[in-house]
Amino acid sequence: MLDRLREDIRAIFERDPAARSMWEVVICYPGFQAQTLHRMAHALWLRDCKLLARTVSHFGRWLTGIEIHPGAKIGRRVFIDHGMGVVIGETAEIGDDCTLYQGVTLGGTSLHEGKRHPTLEEGVVVGAGAKVLGGFTVGRGAKIGPNAVVIKPVPAGATMVANLARMVDKERDKVRAEQAEKMGFTAYGLSDDMNDPTVKAIHGLLDHSVTTDKRLDMILARLEQLGVDCSKERAAQDGFDPNYLNRIVEE
Ligand SMILES: CC(C)(COP(=O)(O)OP(=O)(O)OC[C@H]1O[C@@H](n2cnc3c(N)ncnc32)[C@H](O)[C@@H]1OP(=O)(O)O)[C@@H](O)C(=O)NCCC(=O)NCCS
């Protein structure tokens, strides 16, 4: 028990240059306090004292602003910095040496019983305000950027940034559907990530290329009607496939 506490304090010194003394960590670090209480709550949970476990966990939340379900499994030397607003769900698992900042949610997206919260392998860093939602694994050493929303497995060592939120704009969808009917194609028809300016720009360019190709086709057809031989120009057409490029952008 004392060894674990010493280990936790050492981990905080290693990862927070602001920490000055052992007593400062014990008194002023909510992450340290929440995890100490969680160890008690988890032990009670495993001994089937569920209500008492929830009560200890609730006291921890009241004291620190960090909500850790007593069923969650937390490894060694995990550092929850600042902590306020952190929520860790019942079936979440956090590997050794992970770091979580304030406002992180390790949550679920379904009401099914069983594994519905994420597993973080060793050494994962989850930035302030990030939401990791679902019963998948975030691979060893991965980094989740501040405010990222992650809903799919993350490979080891990957860095994940930005979130998935987008505005659902029915009017815009209608305009795009009309555009797609006229052009026979629209990159936006499939888009899921309208929050990302790079994706927006690429979709805009794809739509523009398709329109430009159509106009060139019309010009060649007119010239051919006037008796001009355009076979060379037609042969020079490249294999531009907007649907393929669209799919790459969407993945
Ligand atoms: C995101 C993070 C995990 C990645 O660290 P890193 O591997 O050193 O990578 P970088 O900081 O160089 O960023 C890599 C890329 O992600 C982008 N990025 C970083 N954070 C981002 C965010 N929140 N949203 C969108 N893009 C972001 C950077 O602009 C950079 O893009 P570029 O390669 O096109 O220039 C790290 O910077 C971080 O923010 N850690 C958490 C810190 C935190 O929460 N602190 C709170 C203290 S109170």
Automatic annotation (TrEMBL):
The keyword S-adenosyl-L-methionine does not apply. Pfam families: Hexapep (PF00132), SATase_N (PF06426). Pathway: Amino-acid biosynthesis; L-cysteine biosynthesis; L-cysteine from L-serine: step 1/2. InterPro entries: Hexapep (IPR001451), LbH_SAT (IPR045304), Ser_AcTrfase_N (IPR010493), Ser_AcTrfase_N_sf (IPR042122), Ser_O-AcTrfase (IPR005881), Serine_acetyltransferase (IPR053376), Trimer_LpxA-like_sf (IPR011004). Its EC number is 2.3.1.30. Keywords: Acyltransferase, Amino-acid biosynthesis, Transferase. It catalyses: L-serine + acetyl-CoA = O-acetyl-L-serine + CoA. The keyword Transferase applies. Residues 3-34 form the Serine acetyltransferase N-terminal domain. Belongs to the transferase hexapeptide repeat family. NCBIfam families: cysE (TIGR01172), EPS_EpsC (NF041874). This is Serine acetyltransferase. It comes from Silvimonas iriomotensis. The gene is cysE.
